[in-house]
Write a structure and sequence with these properties.
Structural class: alpha+beta
Helix content: 10-25%
Shape: globular
Largest sheet: 5 strands, antiparallel
Distance between the termini: 48 Å
Number of helices: 2
Bound molecules: nickel (II) ion
Length: 177
């Protein structure tokens, strides 16, 4: 079945080579308690299961018009997220991130307004390190170490937060105004 496309979004990019066909999954919405759970490591999940999960997450993210999606957002409390910082600009760069460990690189902090597919129409300005080192497993197993900046550093931190039950709501300044 072809994936229907939303008006105003670029075409859904092809999935990375080697992934199975992805299926659309339902995105869990706040305040579903799974969004507050601490996800378990993904290590140990069978490789074919993990590849299917990644394919489903990428398709679901693209279809929803997002740049990142974490497994708890489709109801799976495992430490997996997918991201693509550039597909909306016509330069797809999908990443599949398994059991990530993030470390700030340098001490620069930047503010950016973030949205979340699980909290529709509720953008929040969030201060985060602008550069990070990201260590993670990929589908082939070996540990990867990459440095990210810009939108990719932003997305990776947002999605990694999901794996610890942290949401952009937690960054809102309390205000009665
Ligand atoms: Ni989110």
């Amino acid at each position: 079945m072809p994936v229907p496309e939303q008006a105003g979004l670029p075409a859904v990019p092809p999935l990375p080579a080697g992934l199975p066909k992805g299926h659309l999954r339902e995105i869990v919405l706040y305040p579903d308690p799974i969004l507050r759970s601490i996800a378990l490591p993904a290590k140990g999940i069978a490789a074919d299961e993990l590849a299917q999960l990644a394919a489903d997450m990428l398709i679901t993210m693209y279809h929803a018009g997002g740049r990142g999606l974490a497994a708890p957002q489709i109801g799976i409390a495992r430490r997996v997220f997918v991201m693509d910082g550039f597909w909306k600009e016509g330069a797809p760069a999908p990443r599949i991130i398994i059991d990530p460990v993030l470390t700030p690189l340098g001490d620069e902090i930047g503010d950016m307004v973030e949205g979340c597919l699980s909290i529709p129409d509720h953008p929040v300005s969030v201060a985060r390190p602008t550069r990070i080192t990201l260590r993670h497993l990929d589908l082939d197993g070996p540990m990867q170490v990459i440095d990210l900046d810009g939108i990719e550093a932003r997305i990776a931190q947002h999605e990694a937060d999901h794996l610890d039950g942290r949401l952009i709501l937690d960054f809102q300044e309390s205000s009665n105004a």
